[in-house]
Write a structure and sequence with these properties.
- By secondary structure, the protein is an alpha/beta fold.
- It folds into 3 domains: 2-75, Ubiquitin-like (UB roll) (Roll), CATH 3.10.20; 90-206, Alpha-Beta Plaits (2-Layer Sandwich); 223-561, Fe-only Hydrogenase (Larger Subunit), Chain L, domain 3, CATH 3.40.950.
- The chain has helices spanning 19-25, 77-92, 108-115, 151-159, 194-198, 210-218, 248-258, 266-286, 299-308, 322-338, 355-360, 379-389, 410-413, 420-434, 476-483, 513-529, 539-549, 555-561, 568-572; strands at 2-6, 9-13, 49-52, 59-60, 71-73, 139-141, 166-168, 175-177, 204-206, 222-227, 262-265, 293-294, 345-351, 366-367, 370-371, 375-378, 452-459, 462-470, 491-495.
- The chain has a 5-stranded mixed β-sheet with strand order 2-1-5-3-4, sandwiched between helices. It has a 4-stranded parallel β-sheet with strand order 11-10-13-16, sandwiched between helices.
- Helix 7 (248-258) links the parallel strand 10 and strand 11.
- The chain is globular and about 75 Å long.
């Protein structure tokens, strides 16, 4: 251990710790804009500077290691002046539109301005005049609001390992952009939105579908909302409820008050997905078809393999993602049952994800020229819509989902976390292959935050090897193994966002790892409390197959619930 002094407090720190981490260990907060936990420090923003005795200049605390006997002052007059000056310079080059900004009151630059009592403009900055990139169906990029902290670049390169954005030019002309400044839609971007979660301002944000949704409600369309599993465990954060609060009932009530005629649970379709996906896996295993099989629930992952490894698309399950399956059933089975013209139904998915917006616009996900899902709202968008509508979420009573498409099992609830899809699928696949239920439903080997998790499940003398890829940045070695013919796996789950949908690009902005842990635990708690914890135990699902679909992977099911993929590599290369 190393002993040093920070603000006259004796501190014991581990070898290799930075001043920033050592200060944090004793409750001393040092502000920063560029720092990202667990990534190599850059010291780019200089907000975290401090004074170290014996050194002439100010030292970036995020990038400087502690030393024995070091004396540090993180709040001297010189430090405060330096920080305030840096913030003032950033503000002068930043658009002055805070009141209409989607990150108003949740902007780190705004927070620092408030903390350092910046109330006037001392400098005249060079105003940026960059066009907003609205080329993609999911996200918008506003270079004028970029403060060049580099967090988005690092998230894209070092965490997700995509590299769709980077710095270009130098000095005052530096900017963050896509290759050749062509727009996100023609870059390698998979629209996961992880860059949005780390952006301290609103230089990156989701493309809003709020206006389309309200227009549909106002035009008296038969509007239907469906809620993803991960949303119910995070929505309460925006209303200062305890982390991990399950607010399902209030969400249902709020959506009805917003004007939706019906509110269904996407968890129903998660159970449906499991029956289709587990059956597909069994068919591949027993009939020696293409293995390993990848899950297809995450549209960011699907877009990634279409763009980077289209030669491996045969390995991807043909199942649509749950909310797309729900949309397809709503516009066929439900429409017929209720006597409603499918053209009058407007399906809105409340999702933790930005790339779901892109997914819903795919022509492959339509029936008779009608999209399965008409619009996607992120968790953040719905919060803003509730505010506009004057809905006081904290005072809402709890209501139940509409039926018959509102019933679900515990297996569906865990879809929102890394390893959840795999665990849910194995519960059903085991029952179908072994002819008996899996005794221990809590498959710990596929849980947690490791980059790649694996397990081997013995079933009737056959060992099924599975893997879970947690974050798209960890998928390349798995794909390389398959291409070399060395993969031992039968089934692989991939989620583009680290920790899964619970940390999707459309979720509430956060900076604390403990938030993710509590979000994840909330979903596992829902699973544990459910009467039925296996997808094949869903009674409404059994009725759907009996009345309409026939059997899993049957002709009707394939027609409505399965899809095809395209070689986007050729599209990007213009071939």
């Amino acid at each position: 251990m190393i002993e040093l002094t920070i603000n006259n407090i004796k501190v014991k720190a581990e070898q290799g710790m930075t001043i920033l981490d050592a200060a944090k260990s004793v409750g001393i907060h040092i502000p920063t804009l560029c720092h990202m936990k667990d990534l190599f420090p850059t010291g780019a923003c200089r907000i975290c500077v401090c004074e170290v005795e014996g050194m002439r200049g100010l030292t970036p605390s995020c990038a400087y290691p502690v030393m024995p006997g070091m004396k540090v002052d993180t709040n001297s007059a010189r430090v405060r002046v330096a920080r305030k000056t840096i913030i003032e310079l950033l503000i002068e080059n930043h658009p002055q539109d805070c009141l209409v900004c989607v990150r108003n009151k949740n902007c780190e630059l705004q927070d620092l301005s408030e903390k350092y009592s910046i109330r006037e403009h001392r400098y005249v900055g060079e105003k940026k005049d960059h066009a907003i990139d609205i080329s993609s169906a999911s996200m918008e990029r506003d270079p004028a609001k970029c403060i060049l902290c580099g967090r988005c670049v690092r998230a894209c390169h070092e965490v997700q390992k995509i590299g769709a954005i980077d710095f270009t030019n130098r000095g005052f002309h530096s900017t963050v952009t896509t290759p050749f400044n062509k727009g996100l839609n023609v870059s390698d971007c998979i629209l996961c939105g992880q860059c949005i979660l780390v952006c301290p301002t609103a230089a990156l944000r989701e493309k809003s579908n709020s206006k389309d949704v309200m227009n549909a409600i106002n035009k008296k369309k038969f509007t239907i909302a469906q809620i993803a599993p991960a949303v119910r465990a995070t929505f309460g954060e925006e209303y200062n409820l305890p982390l991990g609060s399950n607010v399902t009932g209030q969400l249902v009530t709020g959506l009805r008050r917003l004007g939706f005629k019906k509110v269904f649970d996407t968890n129903f379709a998660a159970d449906l997905t499991i029956l289709e996906e587990a059956t597909e896996l069994i068919n591949r295993v027993t009939n020696n078809k293409t293995l390993p099989m990848f899950t297809s629930c995450c549209p960011g992952w699907v877009k990634y393999i279409e763009q980077n490894r289209p030669q491996l698309l045969d390995h991807v399950s043909t199942c649509k993602s749950p909310h797309e399956m729900e949309g397809a059933i709503l516009k066929t089975y439900y429409a017929k049952k209720m006597g409603i013209d499918p053209k009058d139904i407007f399906v809105v998915s409340i999702m933790p994800c930005t790339v779901k917006k892109f997914e819903s616009s795919r022509p492959e996900l339509t029936e008779e020229h009608q999209a399965d899902v008409d619009a996607v709202l992120t968790t953040r968008e719905l919060v803003r819509m509730f505010h506009v509508a004057g809905i006081d979420f904290n005072d809402l009573p709890e209501e139940e989902f509409d039926n018959p498409l509102g019933e679900s099992t515990g297996a569906a609830a865990i879809f929102g976390t890394s390893g959840g899809v795999m665990e849910a699928a194995l519960r059903t696949a085991y029952a179908k292959l072994a002819g008996k239920e899996l005794e221990n439903l809590d498959l710990q080997d596929v849980r947690g935050n490791d980059g790649v998790k694996s397990a081997s499940i013995p079933i009737n003398g056959t060992t099924i090897n599975v893997a879970v890829v947690n974050g798209i940045g960890n998928v390349k070695p798995i794909l390389d193994e398959i291409e070399r013919g060395e993969s031992k796996y039968h089934f692989i789950e991939v989620m583009a966002c680290p920790s899964g949908c619970i940390n999707g690009g459309g979720q509430p902005i956060h900076s604390k790892p403990e938030k993710l842990r509590k979000r994840v635990q909330a979903l596992y708690d829902i699973d544990l409390k459910m009467k039925n914890r296996r997808s094949h135990e869903n009674e409404s699902l059994k009725k759907l197959y009996k009345e309409f679909l026939g059997e899993p992977n049957g002709h009707k099911a394939h027609e409505l619930l399965h899809t095809t993929y395209i070689d986007r590599k050729k599209l990007l290369l213009g071939k």
